[in-house]
Amino acid sequence: MSDLVRFSVSLEEDLLQEFDQYCKDNQLPTRSEAIRHLLREKLTTQTWQHDHSLVAANLTVVYDHHRSHLAEKMIELQHQHGDYVVATMHVHITHDLCMESIALRGPADELRTLSQKLGGLKGIHLSHLVVATAQIEDAGGSGGHSHSHGS
After folding, report:
1. The pTM is what?
2. Cα angle vertex 102, ends 115, 38, to 5°?
3. Contact call for residues 134 and 55 (beta carbons, < 8 A)
4. pLDDT tens string 37-91
5. CA–CA separation, 79 vs 74, rounded Å?
6. If you compute the radius of gyration of the chain from its CA atoms, what whole number of angstroms results?
7. What is the pLDDT of residues 14-45, one digit of tens each?
């Protein structure tokens, strides 16, 4: 971790009260931690929205599984972007609705394209892309990292 640097911020009193409520609602222990959290979130979003950097993301799709050929179209799109699909999880929500959670890793623009294509299919109720981290290094097939997961 890099060295800590202290700086001061001037805020209107009502904005500070809203910020303190945000900290409480999100169980953030300190204002400093809350600012770090918000900065990381904003910088991650800004990075992946504006360039072709490698990112890790999750795409959540809720859909009507009774819609004719929808599942096949979803699978076909995932296969067309197979270099970026790491894993999928299928969840039955109701008799009519299913959810796919798709773990992705690759160029931000390609992941956005896949998200938009899946989200635009008829029968999709929700499509939400969440970028977990920006600017990951290409690990050459090592699953994105080199450390061990053993205990």
Report:
1. 0.66
2. 75
3. yes
4. 888 877 776 666 666 778 899 999 999 999 999 999 999 999 999 999 999 999 9
5. 9
6. 19
7. 999 999 999 999 899 999 999 988 888 777 76
Instruction: For residue 129, list its beta bridge partners.
Output: 59
74-83's contacts with Cβ under 8 Å and 24+ in sequence apart are 74/100, 74/118, 74/121, 77/114, 77/117, 77/118, 77/121, 78/102, 78/114, 81/106, 81/110, 81/113, 81/114
Residue 150 — very low, low, confident or very high, per pLDDT cuts 50/70/90?
A: low
Whole-number Å distance between alpha carbons of 13 and 57: 36
Q: What share of the chain is helix, strand, coil (3-state, %, to 5)?
A: 35, 25, 35
Distance in angstroms (rounded) separating the CA atoms of residues 61 and 18: 32
Q: Residue 41: which region, alpha, beta or left (left: phi > 0; alpha: psi -120 to 50)?
A: alpha
Give the separation between CA 119 and CA 59, rounded to whole angstroms: 10
Which of 55, 57, 16, 58 minimizes the C-alpha distance to 34?
Answer: 16
